[in-house]
Design brief:
Elements (H helix, E strand, L loop, with lengths): L7 E4 L5 E3 L7 E2 L5 E4 L5 E4 L18 E2 L3
Antiparallel strand pairs: 1-2, 1-6, 3-4, 4-5
């Protein structure tokens, strides 16, 4: 298991560990799947758009990032 700090997230798609040091410090992983921003008030942003968009809502039980508290 990876030990991450409060301002870090890891992309399970490419394995990059992203660290946002402050507000407006946007960091994008090398594959472009996720980004993090806002330092200790970490926001994880999923950048990829699903290839199929449906009108029904479904639960997101498979995430491609890991965050530890």
């Amino acid at each position: 298991m990876v030990n991450l700090k409060a301002n870090q997230a890891m992309c399970n798609n490419c394995g990059n560990t992203l660290t946002s040091h402050s507000q407006y410090d946007l960091q994008v992983c090398q594959c472009g799947f996720i980004a993090v921003d806002d330092g200790l008030n970490l926001r994880i942003i999923e950048l990829t758009i699903p290839s199929v968009i449906t009108n029904s809502l479904s639960s997101c039980d498979k995430s491609n990032f890991t965050i530890m508290f």
